[in-house]
């Protein structure tokens, strides 16, 4: 029988291979981000702040690559298929002086879905879903929203994608995907993974075993 103590028990994720060079950018801000609404698979567009973040991240990445003597054309560019990530990728590439549309899509990089909770804030759900919200708070790693996914479930498809990365890569995806990706690359505790901060105005770089935000 599962008890409250065992339900939230944490473990350390098995650390995957260190990529040669992996660069991650979260999509820019949307109005739902600003309002604290769960987006998941809902295709919410970038707002003006988000578009500016994406362009700025492209300029930041171009400067980083130039400083390290790296050629932006040598990277694989891959995005989640949702509109907010695609537009972020296109603005990012334009900010780097690259052709905006020259990148791939991969469904495995989709955000985790919140199912029936998408479009709501936790404040919206506080009365009717209080028990489920408390369950989520107790074990955010394994919690599955109604019709949605857990971080544990998301890990399977992110792990599958990461196993295919065999060259320097720039990926544009989502906050949940970043948290799981970092957990896999660094062998983090599962209880810690959902709490990782993922600002939308930073570029995240793994070079061998070293991680940094620029």
Helices and strands, with pairings:
Elements: H1 4-7, E1 22-26, H2 31-35, H3 48-67, E2 76-79, H4 83-95, E3 104-105, H5 122-125, H6 130-138, H7 151-162, E4 169-173, H8 175-186, E5 204-207, E6 210-213
Parallel strand pairs: 1-4, 2-3, 2-4
Antiparallel strand pairs: 1-5, 5-6
How does this model look, in words?
The chain has one domain: Phosphoglycerate mutase-like (Rossmann fold, 3-Layer(aba) Sandwich), CATH 3.40.50.1240. It contains 8 helices and 6 strands, in the order H-E-H-H-E-H-E-H-H-H-E-H-E-E. It has helices at residues 4-7, 31-35, 48-67, 83-95, 122-125, 130-138, 151-162, 175-186; strands at 22-26, 76-79, 104-105, 169-173, 204-207, 210-213. The protein has a 6-stranded mixed beta sheet with strand order 3-2-4-1-5-6. Helix 4 (83-95) links the parallel strand 2 and strand 3. Helix 3 crosses helix 4 and helix 7 crosses helix 8 (175-186). The protein is globular and about 55 Å long.
Identify the notable features of this structure and list them briefly.
single chain, 214 residues, alpha/beta, Rossmann fold, six-stranded mixed β-sheet, disordered N terminus
- What is the architecture at the second tier of CATH? 3-Layer(aba) Sandwich
The CATH C-level name is Alpha Beta
Overall pLDDT metric: 94
**What would the CATH topology be?**
Rossmann fold
